[in-house]
Write a structure and sequence with these properties.
The structure is a homodimer. Chain A has about 120 residues and is mainly α. Chain A has helices at about 10-20, 25-35, 40-50, 55-65, 85-90, 95-120; strands at about 40, 70-75, 80-85. In chain A, strand 2 (about 70-75) and strand 3 (about 80-85) form a beta hairpin. At the A-B interface, helix 1 and helix 6 of A face helix 1, helix 3 and helix 6 of B. Chain A binds a DNA duplex (20 and 20 nucleotides) through helix 3 and helix 4.
DNA sequence: CTGAATCCGAATCGATACTG
DNA sequence: CAGTATCGATTCGGATTCAG
């Protein structure tokens, strides 16, 4: 029997809820790009190569909702919107960078494993 | 124009494909549990508290396909199946532990940020 | 015990069009 | 420029059933 009462360990489900926010579709890539400097909507869109407006909007909302990203409207014409990391967002930099570098390092290994798996009898 | 030819940097899309495998729904939690020791299907299911058979099966398949997990059938009766990490899977331990610990540490902060966001006018 | 197969409604996706 | 609205397509999730 697993309980969370009186324990400092939260339930797996509640941790996974957090992980879900943080590892959702474009989150890692967006955070990585925002680490460099605050960026505007279309700058992110260009960098992310392949993301749709809708997906980018939704991802940024989710990150904003979780307190990782700040959305700042700059009242010029036409309107500019700049996204930047909060301190909480910055605290994810190291873990995300580790994930990102892992992905770069092991990309071809993973791709080969997948191809081999798919070619199985 | 972005190309990947002759560059050591893969395209964002190809990196995200890898990240998707690795950060997909239950991956982090499964890998964390498998770090301790190889485990059987139902042991994982119990530990993961809330996962369905289908989701666990699919997650394990995905991890196996990407070369992170090995599935070993132990021919006893009734049949036992043990899942364990490959060296590649083990190499994810540190990044995932970092993510996991971040989630535990900042869980309440994130939850409060979400509640505040949702309560906005 | 460890799954595979199926069904079905819900959620998500991508493309397109439109707006301040 | 930075979105919102909409719609059809695909995928996903959970429940159930069956099998080696």
């Amino acid at each position: 029997m697993i309980t969370t009462q009186e324990r400092e360990l939260p339930s797996p489900a509640s941790i996974r809820a957090i992980l879900d926010q943080v590892t959702s579709k474009w989150s890692v890539m967006i955070l990585i790009f925002l680490c460099d400097k605050p960026q505007r909507f279309n700058a992110l869109k260009r960098n992310l190569d392949g993301i749709t407006q809708k997906a980018l909007t939704e991802s940024l909302r989710r990150l904003e909702r979780s307190g990782l990203v700040v959305r700042r409207v700059i009242p010029v014409s036409p309107v500019a919107v700049e996204y930047s990391l909060t301190p909480l967002g910055i605290s994810l930099k190291d873990p995300f960078l580790a994930l990102y570098q892992w992905s770069m390092k092991h990309r071809t290994t993973v791709e080969r494993a997948q191809a081999a798996f798919d070619a199985r009898p």
